[in-house]
Amino acid sequence: MLSDHGVCPSLAKDGAPRSALRSVCRKIPVSALLLAGVGMLIAFLGTLGCLVRAPGLSMSMAEGDTLISVDYEIFGKVQGVFFRKYTQAEGKKLGLVGWVQNTDQGTVQGQLQGPTSKVRHMQEWLETKGSSKSHIDRASFHNEKVIVKLDYADFQIVK
User: Which of 25, 65, 111, 132 qualifies as a cystine partner to 98, CB 3.0-4.6 A?
Assistant: First the structure.
């Protein structure tokens, strides 16, 4: 509980310090201690991969997870089995942006952009899951790079 005078709670009612840090503690207002505590909490959550974003701010590198962009191509039975639709849905579910399209060679290709952890999750999904009727032989990822901002507003199917 905060003291009535807005000073360090380790002071006794008569103002005498209760700890060895008496000279420092006496000069630190409770509001500063609370602010420092909030800062430490935010830093701790950042190390756990939690994103802390003020309302209205867009995704950026300051949120605790580096933004990356990666191109991909998926080989196997991936056309005519709703692979693009499932890919778009999974990308949106993860909060990623980018695009997906069929190729003339019978593969599906595209680009993913977003926080590294979410892109990695999507890469695993592209390699192992896909749509329910697809059969993935292999996935190729290339041109991975760190980006400062997202190049797309959403995840699109390119026809």
Answer: 111
